[in-house]
Structure formats: C-alpha cells, structure tokens
Amino acid sequence: MKIGTLFGAMTLISACSMSIIPQGAVQGASAQQESEVPSGNSSNFPVRQPATTGNVNQRLRPTDSAQLVKIGEDTTRALGTGIAAGPDIATLNLSESKAVSALRSFRTSCPSLVRREDNSGLTNGADWQLSCEAARGWPDNDAVRFFTSYFETVQVGDGAAFATGYFEPQIRGSRFKNAQYPVPIYRRPANLIDVDLGLFSEELKDKRVRGKVDGTKLVPFEDRAAIDDGALAGQGLEIAWAQDYIDLFFLQIQGSGRLALPDGSIMRIGYAGQNGRDYTGIGRVMRERGLLADGKTNMQGIVEWLRAHPEEGMRIMRENESYVFFQELTGPGPLGAMGHPVVARTSVAADRMFVPLGAPVYLDMEHDIADGLWVAQDSGGAIKGPNRFDTFWGAGEEAAQIAGGMSSRGQALIFLPKGTFSRLSASQPALGQ
User: Fold this and answer.
1) Are the C-beta atoms of residues 209 and 276 closer than 8 Å to each other?
2) Which residues of 25-52 are buried (b: 16+ CB within 10 A; e: fewer)?
3) Are 342 and 322 within 8 A, CB to CB?
4) How wide is the angle at C-alpha 184 spanned by C-alphas 180 and 189, nearest 5°?
5) Theoretical Cys-Cys bridge with 251: which of 102, 196, 257, 295, CB 3.0 to 4.6 Å?
6) In 248-384, at which residue ranges do the beta strands (DSSP E only) sit?
7) 100 contacts: CB under 8 Å, gap ≥ 6
8) What is the dihedral of CA 62, 65, 71, 77, to 10 degrees?
9) pLDDT in tens, 237-291
10) What are the tens digits of pLDDT across the range 333-386?
C-alpha cells in the first residue's frame, strides 16, 4: 500500500487522501530491473517531459453511457459506475516485450488474486483460477497469446484515463546516529492499531481507521509534529537515520526508497505503516499561499523554497500530519499493496474500488511511453476514482525524470477473465438501466 506516491512531482505533492486511512505506500522496482542509482537526493533530478503524439486510439473512445452495465447505485466502485465491453485483445497489437513482463508480474500476483476480496465487485477469486493455473507454466516467449486466450477487455465508466508516474528515490542515510545523520527513520510502533470498520457495520465496508488504545478508548496516533518533537524517542524504534529532514519527508511521500550509507552500500526501506492522520499535499498549500514563483511549482522549486525558508518550511511540512513508518527490505522488492514486488515499467497503482488488484491494465495515453500493458499491483492515497493510474518507473535518474514529467490523459481498458462481462450483464435486470 502506498501513502501517496510521487506522481508527476507537483501532482503528487498536491494530492490528498480521500480514505479514512490514507492508503499505504508504493515501494519501488523489482531487483531484476533496477538501474544504478547515484548517491544523493533523487529529488534533484530534472523533470523529463515524455514524448507525446497526442494520439489516442479511436477504438478506445469514451463509451456511451447507455451501453454501460451498472449494478447497484454505489458509484464509489466499478459496479455502480458501470462497465462496457471493450475491443478484442487481438486488435490491440500488444507489444511482445511488455506482454512478457506483464505475464511475469501477473504470475507473481496470482496467489493473492485467487484468494483476496475484489473491492471493485467485478470479480471473485474463482474467476482468476483458470488463468492463474495457465500462467504458472505458460512460456514467456508466447505471452501475447496468453492474454488473448484468457482475457477480455472492459471499460470502467467512459474509460477516460489520467496517468502519472512514481519512482524509487534515494537519499543519504546511516544505520547509526551521529552529527551528520540526526533524523530518525522509525519502524512501525507496536501500539499502532488498524481497525476494519466493516466488521462492525455493512455501511462501513472497506473503511478503516488507525490509532492507538488509551485506556478503553481508541484515540488518534501522534501526528507528524508530535513525532518530530520526540514522541517516539527512546523506544528503540529507529531502523536508520537520515542526513536531511526534507529528503526523508519526500521519501515518506513515496513510501519507500534507498539509503546511500557512508560505506557506499545501499539500504532499501519500504512502507511498514502510517499513523492514520490525513495526508495534506504541501504543494497545494504553498501554491494557495502564493509562495511559489512562476516556473517554480515543480518539485525542485518546492524543495528550493523549503531550504531557503527553513523555519516556515518546517511549519508547512508539519501541516501534513501523515507520518510513514518503514521496514528494511532484504528480499525481492520493493513491495506494492498486494505484498508482491512492483516492477519498473510494468506495475501500476490503481484505485482498488475500480480495478481488481492484480488485473492487467491496458493504457493508450497521449505520452506514448506509458502506452501498453501494465499490471495493477499497488494503490495510493491520491490514486482515487475510475481510470486513475500511477505508473512505476523504477529507480535511478532516468526513472526520476520520467516519473516527474508523467502527467498524461488517454483511455484505459481492464483485462478480466473471459466470461466476466457476460456474467455481470446477466445479473443486471435490464442492460443499460
């Protein structure tokens, strides 16, 4: 889970969580696809504007609302928003290389797909059983045929999509505190409690709160300011120490990253929890107060302002009461919301109320670099609503540049097991009503 990803630098910083608990952290690229990352602060990389043709396949044009299959009135999820049948996958001309990577990520996601509840309401675990069994032994060099054999496409709503990007940043850190590394990086406290409100009321299904127990009451956990002022000090929760508070602040927004240690080695850390406080995008706050000059509304401009105004900058950062806790990652990763590694240029974050986590997703965007097959393996506090996606680009300078410049509109299709649309259509009293 991700707390709010660094999508399109300024877009991410301006985002707000809409859930009771801001959804938790994206955690970077798979080790097999990581690029070399220079030491230092990834936020200093210039934004790169991906090439755009402005062309979106007309076969994926927005669907007439009369064609939508809607089940129920809950527009906060895919079924109530409505779905329409999309084009045959064979007509999409899938890239073989993208299909190979998507097949591998789909295969990784299958153990969760077949057993977890699909919050979107589009599928159940049994729906994925056949494709997951086939994926286990399917040859990678025939990946396109796998997707054409087992899946069909649907649009959610009109299919009109908006995509941004995120990456795995790197900052300077140490396993030990000293004068050069004074900023604590905390593990999740043992007294931080998650409560699934759906266990108490059907009306609160998919809603959660997070806090701590005080006597017989559940109360809010400490906010960022209290933690900064030492509320967790002396509890042995520190897993590492950062050189710079601003660097750690933005790494917390990402939800995972790398620490360049003094001996030249790398320590990878990933999301372990969040304090349950609302996420506030400081970019929006700064923009509304007129603090950012023209041409300085990107991430680099924000960081420059914070460094030039340290006292006021600290007060502004504290207005984001959300605080992320970390764990050291020593195996494959970084990990997404499904608990599986997310993969550069393959994994995408989506709103689980509109896309089954683990499902393949096809994007056709104005920025062609984002076109093609992805797998929804993550979620984010600011990634909300139908056809809202956050594309993962991995680690390193190029990844940071692409993610920082990614802000693109287009069309999206969700791949579902064959027969899903017919089943959903049959459960609707009258098609289109």
Assistant:
1) yes
2) bbbbbbeebbeebeeebbbebebbebee
3) no
4) 165
5) 257
6) 256-260, 266-274, 324-329, 347-350, 360-365, 372-378
7) 140, 141, 143
8) 40
9) 999 999 999 999 999 987 889 999 999 999 999 889 999 999 998 999 999 999 9
10) 678 888 888 999 999 999 999 999 999 999 999 989 999 999 999 987 778 999
Contact by Cβ (8 Å): 48, 401: yes
Q: What is the DSSP string of 319-357?
A: T----EEEEEE-SS--B-TTSSB--TTTEEEE-TTTS-T
Work out the angle between the directed axes of helices 299-308 and 245-254 (0-180°, nearest 10): 150
Angstrom CA distances, 231 to 189, 201, 205, 211, 293, stand at 11, 33, 32, 15, 35
CA 365 – CA 363 distance, rounded (Å) = 6
Closest CA to 68 of 51, 86, 55: 86
Structure tokens at 360: 């393949």
For residue 104, CA distances in Å to 114, 139, 149, 286, 358 come to 16, 10, 16, 42, 11
> CA nearest 28: which of 403, 325, 358, 320?
403
Residue 337 in tokens? 């919301």
DSSP states of 215-241: TTEEEPPP-HHHHHTTTTTTSS-EEEE
Report residue 275 as tokens.
């304090």
Strands (E), 33-76: none
What is the distance, to the nearest Å, from the Cα of residue 262 to the centroid of all Cα atoms in its chain?
30
Q: Which tokens sit at 267? A: 């320590």
Sign of CA dihedral 54, 154, 402, 325: positive
Continuous segment of H or E residues that includes residue 392: strand 388-395
